[in-house]
Amino acid sequence: MLLRIDKLRFRRPRGTRDYLPEECVERRQVIEIARRVFELYGYGEVVTPAFEYLELLERKAGEEVREQIYWFKDKAGRLLGLRFDMTTSIARIVANNPVMPKPIRFYYIGPVWRYEEPQRGRLREFWQAGVELIGSPLLDADAEVIALTARFFRELKLNNVKVKINDRGIMNALARYLKLNDDLSIERFFRAIDKYYKQGMEVVENELRKLGITNTREILELISSNTREDLDPTGLLSKIGVKDRVRLLEDLLEVLINGYGIPRDRVEIDYSIVRGIGYYTGLVFEFMDDDFLELGSLAAGGRYDELIKLLGGVDTPATGMSIGIERVVELLRLRKERTMTRTSNALVLVTSTTDEYKYNAIRLAEEIRDENIPSIVDVMGRKLRVIMERADKSSIPLVVILGPRELKRGEVVLRDLKNRKQWYVPRENIIVEIKRTLAQLGFY
Questions:
Q1: C-alpha dist (Å) from residue 316 to 56, 95, 134, 146, 164
Q2: Rounded to 5 degrees, what are φ and ψ at 409?
Q3: What is the DSSP string of 285-324?
Q4: How far apart are CA 22 and CA 210, in angstroms?
Q5: Max intra-chain CA distance, the chain
Q6: SS3 at position 347
Q7: Residue 90: how many CB atoms within 10 A of its CB?
Q8: What phi and psi values does residue 388 have, to the nearest 5 degrees?
C-alpha cells in the first residue's frame, strides 16, 4: 500500500512568502534605492542578530507587540525571541557602547517577524529598511529622518505618498485629560486611535467606549479634523494645555517645507497617528498613499528618547524610521509605475546559431563576466527565435549572436532588443561595444 503524503506538510508557513527571480529583482531595486538614499545622508550599515533575549524585546514593546513576538527556549533553557523590529537591537548596541561619538547614524536592511493576522500588505515575516539617528534631542534630527524618507519615495516616483505627523506628548496629555492614568489604559487608548485608518471611525468609537470614555465626540472630531489651516481645529488642544507641543509641530513643518523643500500638500499634521509600539516618546509619523490606505503605513517612525536608558545605557535621545519593503513593492504594482520591469539579472545573452560554435559562445560569455557584466548563455538547446523571445520577455537588453559566416569574417552580431536594431561588431571589439551600448541604455 502506498503511503499518502499530506501536502499540507509541505506548504510554506502562513504569513510568509516565496519570491521568485522576477519578484526578487523588484525587491532588490527598492532595497538598493533605500541603501543609496541612506548613504547619501551619511548613514552606515549595521547588521544585528535575528533573535534577541526575550526580556530585551519585551522591555518597552507594548502589550500588542509582546503578544506578536515569536519566542522559544534554547537548549540551555534561555528565553529568546525573533526580533519584531531593528530599533530595539540597535538601542542595545548603543546602550552597551556609551562612548560612541554622537550623533550616531545607522541604517539597516533585513527581515523581522510578528505573529499577527496575515492580510494584504501584512505578513508574519517581512523586510524593513530603516535608519536610526542617535544622540540629538533637536528637531533637526527628526526633520532629517523624515526628509530622507520622503526622498526615498521621490526616487521611486511615488509622488502621491505623503507624511502624516503627530506628537506622542499631545496624545499623552489627551489621555490624562480623559482620566487614563495607568500605562495599560493609555496604551489601549493609543491602540484604539491607531485603528482609525485601518478599521474606520465606528471601530475607534467602540474601542474608546470600552475604555470608559463617554465624551468620544471631542476625540473623534480631533483625529478626523483637517489641520491644513489650523493645528487646533476643535479647540481641544488649548483646553488640555499642549501649546508648546503644537508649536513644535509648526516648527517641524517649517523645516520640512522651507528647509528640505517638501511640497506643502505632501506633509500634514494628523492626530490619529500614534504608532503602536510602546517605546515612542515624542514626534511620530507615518508615510501613506491616500489612494491606497488599505496598504497601511509604507514607512513609519518617531522619537524614542527613553529606550536606550531603559536598556541599561546612559540617557540618550534618539529618533528613527523603518520602511516596509513588501508594502512599497505592492504600491509600485498598484500604481503601475514599475520602472523595475527587468525579470533577469543578466544584461547580455550570448548564443550561437549552431552547436559547432557553442564553446565560442561560452568563452565570450566568460570574457563578458570578467568585465563584471552579468551574462547568460542558452542551456536549453532552443532555436534562435525562441531564445530571442525569452530574452525579450526577461528584459535582457542585449544579445550577442555567433554565426559561422560572421565568425569567418571575424565579427559577431550585437542585437539591441530595447531599440529593435542590430549591427556587426569585430570580435575583438565586442566588449567595448557592449559597454558603450549599455551606457547608452542607461545601465552604466
A1: 17, 9, 7, 20, 25
A2: -90, 0
A3: EEEEEGGGGGG--SEEEEE-TTHHHHTTS----EEEEEEE
A4: 47
A5: 90
A6: coil
A7: 24
A8: -65, -40
How far apart are the C-alpha atoms of 297 and 17, rounded to whole Å?
Answer: 20
Strands (E) across 88-228 are located at 104-113, 125-134, 161-167
213 backbone φψ class: left, alpha, beta (φ>0; ψ -120 to 50): beta
Same fold, 11-335 and 348-440: no
Q: Are residues 412 and 400 in contact, defined by beta-carbon separation less than 8 angstroms? A: yes
CA distance 58 to 190: 18
pLDDT reading at 273 higher than 70: yes
The confidence score (pLDDT) of residue 291 equals 85
Smallest Cα–Cα separation from 276: which of 89, 72, 68?
A: 68
- DSSP code, position 441: T
What is the spatial distance between Cα 298 and Cα 126, in angstroms, rounded to a whole number? 12
Residue 400's nearest CA partner among 386, 411, 409, 390 is 411
Q: What is 348-440's CATH superfamily?
A: Anticodon-binding domain (3.40.50.800)
Q: At a CB cut-off of 8 Å and minimum separation 6, what does 380 contact?
A: none
* CB atoms near residue 54 (< 10 Å): 18
CATH 3.30.930.10 fits 11-335, yes or no: yes
Inter-CA distances, 415 with 384, 401, 423, 436, Å = 12, 8, 7, 13
Start-to-end CA distance of the chain, whole Å, equals 61
Domain segments of the chain as ranges: 11-335, 348-440
> Mean pLDDT over all residues of the chain?
88
DSSP assignment, residue 428?
G
pLDDT tens for 109-142 read: 999 999 988 877 789 999 999 999 999 999 999 9
CA 95 vs. chain centroid, Å, equals: 25
Cell of 118: 496575515
Determine the Cα–Cα distance for residues 305 and 314; give it in Å rounded to an integer.
11
Q: Distance between alpha carbon 390 and the CA centroid of its chain, in Å?
A: 31
